[in-house]
Amino acid sequence: MEFFATAAFGLEGIVKQELNRLHIDGKCEMGGVRFSGTAEQCFESNLWLRTADRVLLIVGEEKVLSFEDLFQFVSSLPWERYLPKDAHFPVVGKCVKSQLMSVRDCQAITKKAIVERLKKKYKTSWFEENGADYKIEIAIHSDMARLTIDTSGNALNKRGYRTWNGEAPIRETLAAALILTSPSRGKMPVWDPCCGTGTLLIEAAYIQANRAPGLTRSFACEGWKDFSPKTIKDIRNQAEAAFHPSAIGEIGGSDIDPQALTLCKRHIKQAGIGGKITVFEKDLRDLEAPYAAPCFIVNPPYGERLSDRKQCEKLYKGLRLLKERHVGSRMCVITAHNGFERCFGQRATQKRRLYNGRLECEYCIF
C-alpha cells in the first residue's frame, strides 16, 4: 500500500530519516513523505514517528476540473478493498488553487461516489456505519485530487502525557525535531532555561530512552480488517522491550513561572519518567546549570506584541550571557523574532527554517 506521512513545513527531511531508521524508504514532498509499505509498517510508523503529524493511506490521485470529473474519479477507486460493509467513513476536505474550491460540495460528492460504489459491491442500499472509523479526506491542490484514509486517528503529537497546557505550548512533534537536529542528538546533557510545561524535556528523555512516542495510545488503523491484532500486539511488545528509562542521562530545565513548573512536573510524571528529569524555578539570567557544557535548547517568547518586544530582547541578551557562563556549551533557539541574532550578539553557526504552528521561525544554533 502507499502512504503519506504528513509533517509541518521544514520537517519533511527529518521524517524521512525517521522512516529510514524503520527500514522504510520514503520520498520527500511538500508537507510530508510518501512511502510504500505493509500494514505492519504503517502501524510501526504511527508508533515510532516523532516528528510526523499523521500517516495517511493513499487510495488514489488524479487531476479533476469539474464535479463530474471528481465523481467519476472517486467512484472508480476500489473502496471495497479498504472499507468493510459496516465502516464509519466521514469525509473531510480541503481545496487550494483549483477549479473546484467549494470544500462542502467536494465532500458531499466524494461521499456520494463512495456510497454508490459500495452499494454495487455489497449489494445493499443502506450502510449503518457503526463499525471502525475510516476518516477519508479529499484534498485538491492545483486541480490534483488526492483521496486518503487517516490511519492515525488523533494527530501523532498527542502522546498522552500533556493534559494541561501553559502559555504558548510547543507541539511535541516540533519539540522532538528541535532535539533531533540539535548538537545533542540525545547524547549531550540538555537544559531548557524556559522549560514551561516540559514538552522539550520529555521529548529529549524519550529519545534518550528509545521510547516509542505512541507507546501508550491507540491508532485508528488498529480496528481495520488488514491489521492483525496479534501482529500489532507483537510490535507493541517489541517497542515496550526497547524502552530503557535507565538510559535517560542529564536532562533538566528551569523557568520563572511556578505555575508552569507545576504542570511540567505533572507532565513528567504522566510521561512515565518521574524522577528522571531535574526541574527548578530560576531566572535564566541567574542560572547556573548543574551540568557541565550542556546543550541549551530554548523556545523563548518571540515578542510578537510591541509591548513585549523590548522585554524579550533583554531576555535574548540574557541567553548570550548564559552561554558564556557555561564554557563549551551549545545554544539552540527557535524564534520568530527577525532581529534575534542582533539581540543575542552573535551570528548563528547553523540556521534552519521551521514553523511553530503558523509562525515562520528560524532555528538558530550557536
Task: Walk me through the structure.
There is one protein chain. It is built from ten helices and 14 strands. The strands form two sheets. A seven-stranded mixed beta sheet has the order 2-3-1-4-7-6-5. Strand 5, helix 4 and strand 6 form a beta-alpha-beta unit. Helix 2 packs parallel to helix 7 and helix 5 crosses helix 6. It is elongated.
Q: How would you summarize this macromolecular structure in one to three sentences?
A:
By secondary structure, this protein is α/β, with parallel strands linked by helices.
Give the arrangement of secondary structure elements.
Layout: E1 2-6, H1 12-21, E2 26-29, E3 32-36, H2 39-48, E4 54-63, H3 67-75, E5 91-96, H4 103-122, E6 136-141, E7 144-150, H5 172-180, E8 190-192, H6 199-208, H7 229-242, E9 251-255, H8 258-270, E10 278-281, E11 295-298, H9 306-325, E12 330-335, H10 340-344, E13 350-356, E14 359-365
